[in-house]
Specification:
Structural class: mainly alpha
Number of helices: 15
CATH class: Mainly Alpha
Strand order of the largest sheet: 1-2
Radius of gyration: 18 Å
Number of domains: 1
Oligomer: single chain
Number of strands: 2
Low-confidence stretches: none
Helix content: over 70%
Length: 294
C-alpha cells in the first residue's frame, strides 16, 4: 500500500473512532456537540493520531485500545485550534478552509467547545479498559504535561503571545516552539509507546523522534505562513508577520529555515535506527511533515 492509500485509510479509521467516542449532535445540549463536531470533522490531517498509532505499531503489532489515545490527542489539538482562532488570540476567520468555530457558533460557544474537547480527552483515557491502570495513569500524566504550562502547549502559547514585537532571538524562538507545537507531537509518540508497553530504550528513541519531528513541523509551518497562499493553507496566510511573531524565517531567513527542517528530519530518521523495518511508516511520516505544502 502506498503512502497516499495508507493515509486515507488511517484517517478514515481515526474519523470513525472519533465519531463513535464524541457525543452525537443530538445529545443534549445539542449546540455544544454541534460546535465540537464542526471543528473536529473540519478536514484535519490527523497527524498526531497517526504518529500515536504508528509509534504503538513500531513496538507491537496492533496494541488493544490504541485508537483511544489517538483520538484523545486529536481532541486536545482541535481544542487548541478553536481557542487559537478566537479574537483574543490569533483572531482568524478561517481554519482548514472553513469558517472558524467562533464565526459559526459565537465566541462563548467556541470557548466552551474547546473546553469540552479538552475535558473529553482525559475522560477517554481514564475510561480505557484495554490497558492496565499503570499505563493508563502514565498516558494521562503525559498528555496533561504536554498540554500544560511547564514546557507544554499552553506555556508555549503564553511565550508566543508575550514574545510578539520582541527582537527575534533564537533561544526564545526554540523555547516557544518546543513547547507550543513540539510537546504535543512528542506526546503523540509517547502515548503510543506507553500504550504498546514499550521498554525504556524504545520509549526514549520514539521520544527523540517526536522531538525532532515536532521542531521540523513548526519550522515548515512558519515557512508556509510566508510562502503559501491562504487557499492552500486553509487559513489566513501571513499572520505571523502581521502580528510580529517570532518565527524561524524571522530569525534565520527562509533558506536557513528550510535547511534546519531537513536537519531535524534527518535526526528523526536517526532516532528510529534501532527499529529497522518496523518503523517504516514513521520514516514516511517524517518526510511527509517536512515536504508538505499545507
Amino acid at each position: 500500500m502506498n503512502l497516499r492509500e495508507y493515509l486515507a485509510g488511517q484517517q478514515k479509521l481515526v474519523d470513525a473512532e472519533l465519531d463513535r467516542l464524541v457525543p452525537p449532535e443530538t445529545a443534549i445540549p445539542e449546540t455544544i456537540h454541534r460546535a465540537m463536531r464542526y471543528s473536529l470533522f473540519a478536514g484535519g490531517k490527523r497527524i498526531r493520531p497517526l504518529l500515536c498509532l504508528e509509534a504503538a505499531r513500531t513496538v507491537a503489532d496492533e496494541p488493544p485500545g490504541i485508537t483511544v489515545p489517538a483520538c484523545a490527542l486529536e481532541c486536545i489539538h482541535t481544542y487548541s485550534l478553536i481557542h487559537d482562532d478566537l479574537p483574543a488570540l490569533d483572531n482568524d476567520d478561517y481554519r482548514r478552509g472553513k469558517l472558524t468555530c467562533h464565526k459559526m457558533f459565537g465566541e462563548a460557544m467556541a470557548i466552551l467547545a474547546g473546553d469540552a474537547l479538552l475535558t473529553l480527552a482525559f475522560q477517554l483515557l481514564a475510561s480505557m479498559d484495554a490497558v492496565c491502570g499503570g499505563r493508563k495513569a502514565r498516558m494521562i500524566a503525559e498528555l496533561a504535561a504536554a498540554a500544560g504550562t511547564v514546557g507544554g502547549m499552553i506555556g508555549g502559547q503564553v511565550a508566543d503571545l508575550e514574545g510578539e514585537g520582541r527582537p527575534p532571538e533564537p533561544a526564545l524562538l526554540e523555547s516557544i516552539h518546543r513547547a507550543k507545537t513540539g510537546a504535543l507531537l512528542r506526546a503523540s509518540l509517547r502515548l503510543g509507546a506507553i500504550c504498546a508497553g514499550a521498554d525504556d530504550a524504545s520509549y526514549e528513541s520514539l521520544s527523540r523522534y517526536g522531538e525532532h519531528v515536532g521542531l521540523a513541523f513548526q519550522i515548515v509551518d512558519d515557512i508556509l505562513d510566508v510562502e503559501a497562499s491562504s487557499e492552500a493553507l486553509g487559513k489566513t496566510a501571513g499572520k505571523d508577520a502581521q502580528q510580529h511573531k517570532i518565527t524561524f524565517p524571522a530569525v534565520y531567513g527562509l533558506e536557513r529555515s528550510r535547511a534546519m527542517a531537513g536537519e531535524e528530519c534527518a535526526r528523526a530518521h536517526e532516532a528510529l535506527a534501532g527499529f529497522g523495518a518496523r518503523a517504516g511508516r514513521l520514516h514516511e511520516l517524517a518526510d511527509l511533515i517536512v515536504h508538505r505544502k499545507s
